[in-house]
Design brief:
31% of the residues lie in helices and 26% in strands. With 419 residues, the protein is α/β, with parallel strands linked by helices. It folds into two domains: 205 residues, Alpha-beta prism (UDP-n-acetylglucosamine1-carboxyvinyl-transferase, Chain), CATH 3.65.10; 208 residues, Alpha-beta prism (UDP-n-acetylglucosamine1-carboxyvinyl-transferase, Chain). The strands form six sheets. The chain has a four-stranded mixed sheet with strand order 22-23-1-24, covered by helices on one side. A four-stranded mixed sheet has the order 2-15-17-16. Helix 12 links the parallel strand 22 and strand 23. Helix 1 runs parallel beside helix 2. The radius of gyration is 21 Å and the shape is globular. The structure holds uridine-diphosphate-N-acetylglucosamine. Uridine-diphosphate-N-acetylglucosamine binds next to helix 5 and helix 6. Uridine-diphosphate-N-acetylglucosamine (UD1) binds next to helix 5 and helix 6.
Amino acid sequence: MEKLWIEGGVPLTGEVEISGAKNVVLPLMAVSLLADGIFAIEKVPALNDIKMMAHLLRVIGSKVDYSSKTKTMTIDNSYCSYYEAPYELVNKMRASIYVLSPLLARFGQAKVSLPGGCAIGPRPIDLHLKALEQMGVKIEVNHGYIEAEVDRLKGAEIIFEKVSVGATVTVLMAAALAEGETVIKNAAVEPEVMSVVACLNAMGGKIEKRGDSELRIIGVEKLRPITFKAIPDRIEAGTFLIAAAVTKGEVKITGCEPLHIEALIQKLKEAGCEVQAGDDWVKVSRKGDLKPVDIVTHPYPLFPTDLQAQFVALMSLAKGTSVIEETIFAERFHHVPELNRLDANIVVEGNKCIVTGVSKLSGAEVMATDLRASAALIIAGLAAEGVTKVSRIYHLDRGYERIEVKLEKLGAKIKRIIA
Ligand code: UD1
């Protein structure tokens, strides 16, 4: 089994380039199904989740090629003929649900396995299904599969009771080729969602944002395949900034979009870090003590749930107590017992955790339970005294491109070992 071996205590220094965002590449791969011909995505990171989505598209009949050199993926959907996303794939990668709408738009039918829960708690898809029903889709759930059928998708007014990235993307893809107008109220406007909007518009779609959280889509007859570049991964960017802060280092992240991580930048400043930002870079350094800072996760542009675990790791070394509240996935605290194995002092109370800062963490063997929890354990390990070994790092390979190589370049003592 592969593990990450980390000897903590080295301040990270230098520059690191941020990869393209997995959370936009996955929906864009599904968007590609809305057009025939060759669709290309640039700045695609080499990640297991993306390989898995490529596998799913191949099952549907797409021809998918990826060059790790140019980081470009090409998807030829001219000969797609299958409309089923099987359990074995959906079960491993939740984003498979993204193919539901494009399959409906393309074939008028789709059979997609129900995704079920995952390591960060229950993740229902009721909002996706209700919205599609409003757009004229007949849906039955049989034997763990969503069986959906529609003659032609129809525009509708969708009012989401909760802000959902996934459900917003599902409706965007369904509405792009639907008959008439769709309005999504209380839409998610995460950078990844707005990037899907930009891509659909570049393909010939007609979508506009109104106010803070409304999207208006006028269905078109046809979309054309294009070449589209993935936005930088704001969560990878944030993870490196936190890693620099925890080790009292000085790191410049490049090729990123500072506006997308504004909420984190504010919190790092409150915690006593120095942060400077340019057009496409951010530099963080810390000299003094870490101050305790409370956070509450919320939809964009507020503090993202995907940086909560990493921020908990940072606060475990602050001088004082901080309260971290999770409003997106109430149970997303599996990293806490593992951080406590490194001598952190964190107590979970409902959807909050109370972090009482300690003066030092000590290396130990810990287990990654999900993607962002893995990042939190690495961050803690980089700051801890002695050696930390993180197991089950396959979670990490789903969403971070060669993180140990990038960290090593910043001076970290980290390596992948077989143990
Ligand atoms: C969410 C995050 C996204 C993050 C991703 C992976 C938000 C708003 N979304 O996106 O930033 O990258 O996790 O960690 O922060 N929900 C329902 N019914 C549904 C769909 C969602 O009740 O049909 C609920 C979820 O349980 C959750 C909330 O809505 O409490 C947001 O979920 P959603 O945005 O859909 O999740 P992801 O798309 O996975």
